[in-house]
Amino acid sequence: MKKTFKFDSEWSLAISLLPEERQQLLTEAIKEYQANDTIPDRLDPVSMMGFLMVKAVIDRRKRANMRARERRSRRRAKAVPQSSKMSTIKPEGAPSGIDIKAENALPTVSQHAPLAVTRFFQEGTPSTPLHDTVRCIMQDNVFVLRLCNVSGLTRNQAAEAVFKLVNRRIKRRRPVNDLNRLKTICLDTIPKPTSVRLTQ
Predict the structure, then answer these.
(1) In terms of C-beta density within 10 A (0-12 exposed, 13-18 middle, 19 or more buried), how is residue 169 classed?
(2) CB of 113 within 8 A of CB of 73?
(3) What's the angle, vertex CA 107, arms to CA 102 and CA 112, rounded to 5?
(4) What is the largest distance, in Å, between two alpha-carbon atoms of the chain?
(5) N or C terminus: fewer CB in 10 A for the chain?
């Protein structure tokens, strides 16, 4: 049973134009329908017509509310941490080729590992817009993995390349404030590895 309900000002205005004996019945019927979904049977035809117009609005709001609840529950279900999904017992057997490829694609560095100390990220580095921007970019593990796969760089080399690129754009007075746009620029600009000859 719904404890609260919304009574529109338009409804109050329309009900106030009715005779007093119908006002009370119609107001109670609307409140009862919002709370219990029960259609009144004691209304006269004029009040019933007003009630049916209000009922259509109430039903539309309830459907919209239900759709919003379903969307939120689906989002919550998608946001369940991966660790709880992985805790399910898998049948034993040889892993498929897809599983092996996925395991090899994961970075060897732990997911939340800080950037190693390099000449660009030294201990006690001041918080500047340049350093903060690069840190924000490099905290996106999906971006870092993609950049490392595309460019063939290690995580620290990729951090240095991103640092140089952002610094160069700032010096040339062409900074980019949108991090997603900056990530795209990094993927497009950071040099790709040339064909490497394998020596045996």
Answers:
(1) middle
(2) no
(3) 120
(4) 99
(5) C
In the chain, domain spans: 9-78, 97-189
Q: What is the Cα gyration radius of the chain?
A: 31
Decide: residue 127, CB within 10 A, 0-12 exposed, 13-18 middle, 19+ buried. Answer: exposed
Tell me which residue has tokens 């009144």.
40
Q: What is the dihedral of CA 152, 130, 135, 187, to 10 degrees?
A: -30
Q: What would the two tokens of residue 199 be?
A: 């020596």
Label residue 16 exposed, middle or buried (CB < 10 Å: 0-12, 13-18, 19+).
exposed
d(CA 43, CA 41): 6
Q: Name which of 35, 57, 55 is nearest 43 in CA terms.
A: 55
Judging by beta carbons within 10 Å of its beta carbon (0-12, 13-18, 19+), is residue 187 exposed, middle or buried?
A: middle
Q: Work out the pLDDT band at 5, boundaries 50, 70, 90.
A: low
Cβ pair 39, 33 in contact under 8 A: yes
Instruction: Quickly tell me which residue has 């992985």 as its tokens.
Output: 86
Average pLDDT, the chain: 72
